[in-house]
């Protein structure tokens, strides 16, 4: 052979990398490997449409089966590339092997507009296997696996690998794959492979639809043969909106079909599906749907309404208040004032009934809730709307939720709300219920102390000395903290009874010390004095007996013997508090004694357990707050203590921290951890969570937003935090919210894997750069420029204080020179902001002194 001939062959191979042969060997079904061996048919030319081509429909004639002479599309028999050529109306075939993942049909069979071609291959599976068939095509495509159509979609597009995925079941042994690819114009091709299957990939295999008559049916996006090939059976549980199981069935032969329900009225349901696949795997999913006769009702229209607000004769104070709230806000929204009447008064029109009434049991089958049950339900029966829950706070929370969810009301701060105007409110089905994620919810921001705001936003927790905060619906108050010195003051006993205090280095000490808890007199004094507190302030839920806010526990032999046995100082605390709790239990059976697991007492004891009427208040003060409890190495020990306390203590209460106590006003990017941390605390059986924040006054960094978001998270730890933040940004800051949200996102982008933020974050931390400060200043300038009005501008300026403060701390001379410091002083003076840190006046005076002395 001449060199010239060899060169010609090499060029030909280079230009035509596709190899053709006349036989097809089955390939192993290898996950992730592209299918490259195919039998490709000659193109079938289809009639060009006389009108404009519908990009979302197949070419006319695509649905025709062109393989009837060789078994048809469902039973195609392609053994050799030339066997099908004998029939004039059947396309011929050729064997094709590609070195590329994408099969370029233009190169294989030529570019033919308004045409289709078939591709056939065989794969072998070593067992029954559920996989994803992943593919892309140019243009539309239909697919058969083992003769069953598993996909059919018309699209005008280019080939994108893995753009489409369908879950299929490969049988053990030989499996056939037939693809039918159309070409509307220009390029033409396809690609395919098998990918691993995850249960989430089948979360939408079944769905529930409701027809015009209100009948619900279980349907699938898969063809019936494909569904039967994949699914062996499905267990269905149908629940009413209140969680009551109303129907249970198993479907195997006919998985799709109607769901038998009471259609007399329109209601919401939840369906739990347990799908058994052919390979033995289970896929579980939950579907929400509505069914039943649907009628539209009008609560108000054009400042007119036929409704009244009806209260039960024994309505609680919070239910009566909620009725006035509902009346007031509906008038603000619609312009019409609904009358409030006792439910026994004659009335022929529709009504909003507040509080549990006997018809609720007769109509809905729901029993009367406990007075302290904070869960609620609002639902309609015909035009009548029922809002009910526990009498203490449940019904009230239901009313506020109705106004939020159905009317769009927001109470962002005590002085800032969004109350939309509506001409009409129509409904056909109202069926909504909620329950608290955390029993005691203590949002410890100054903004959250307003009792009306707290009631509207479902905050029920307080922390005080003396009486609890007066609030509609009452509160679950935790009385006191760091109370050793309150009960056994150094000033009262140091001279007469030095043995009551810590023994350190052989000497009784009195400054920043704890008590000698093994001394029986100390136990008697605290027991007597806490009983007195409980009698004088009976409205609290938990009464504190806990260490002072310092270290230096007693080192006497008796105290340390208990510590040594328990392996932790907390063992001594629990031993002592258990005795107090036992002493008060008979007189106060529904109250708790609380204590701290804080700093040197944070690690749980080895053996002793808190009594059933003891609450352990665990504190997270040492943690990193730029990363959540679960993901940060620096939080590993706290997470371990949390889990151990949760198994040890019958009642766990959390004292968490959400601000920089050293610099209230400085940027503190911890928003991304709030939800995860609250979920972790909830999941470890916390009955209460206190989020300690800037509690002494206004002006903390994003204080209004944090207070609002925390209220939402404590009630519902699963809420969409990004939606809440965005809603607040645009609701509270108006048009300026766009730029403040950009600043918010910029701030949190400064946090990376190696960033660790604690409660003493300083202005010289690496996350704060000159570029960050400069970019932030520009964003707030833009926010101020587009402010809707002077009130919004004031809010924007308060939001900008952290950047002004940071600039003053980092470059005080420049801040004084360019007006930043003067602007900061003007805003804080106007707004009455005096707490720059928990330390109060000392920090404020020191800050101003440092800036004013700078050159």
Structural features, described:
The protein is α/β, with parallel strands linked by helices. Among the domains are: 27-197, Jelly Rolls (Sandwich); 203-291, Immunoglobulin-like (Sandwich), CATH 2.60.40; 298-435, Chitobiase, domain 2; 736-854, no CATH class. The chain has 22 helices and 39 strands. Strands 1, 2, 3, 4, 6, 8, 9 and 11 form an eight-stranded mixed β-sheet that branches. It has an eight-stranded parallel β-sheet with strand order 30-39-38-37-36-35-32-31. β38 (652-657), α14 (671-683) and β39 form a beta-alpha-beta unit. α10 crosses α12 (569-585) and α16 packs across α17. Residues 1-21 and 80-88 have low confidence and may be disordered.
Please describe the topology of this protein.
Blueprint: H1 3-15, E1 27-28, E2 37-41, E3 44-45, E4 93-97, E5 103-104, H2 105-109, E6 115-125, E7 129-138, E8 141-145, E9 148-153, E10 164-170, E11 173-183, E12 189-195, E13 206-210, E14 216-220, H3 224-230, E15 231-240, E16 245-251, E17 257-259, E18 267-277, E19 282-291, E20 297-301, E21 308-311, H4 317-334, E22 340-342, E23 351-354, H5 358-364, E24 376-381, E25 384-389, H6 394-405, E26 410-413, E27 416-418, E28 424-427, E29 431-434, E30 440-444, H7 451-456, E31 461-464, E32 476-479, H8 484-487, H9 490-493, E33 503-504, E34 507-508, H10 520-536, E35 542-544, H11 557-566, H12 569-585, E36 592-597, E37 614-619, H13 636-648, E38 652-657, H14 671-683, E39 686-692, H15 703-715, H16 721-733, H17 737-749, H18 770-785, H19 790-810, H20 812-817, H21 820-831, H22 841-853
Parallel strand pairs: 1-6, 21-22, 21-23, 23-25, 30-39, 31-32, 32-35, 35-36, 36-37, 37-38, 38-39
Antiparallel strand pairs: 2-4, 2-6, 3-6, 5-12, 6-11, 7-10, 7-12, 8-9, 8-11, 13-14, 14-17, 15-16, 15-18, 18-19, 20-28, 24-25, 24-29, 26-27, 33-34
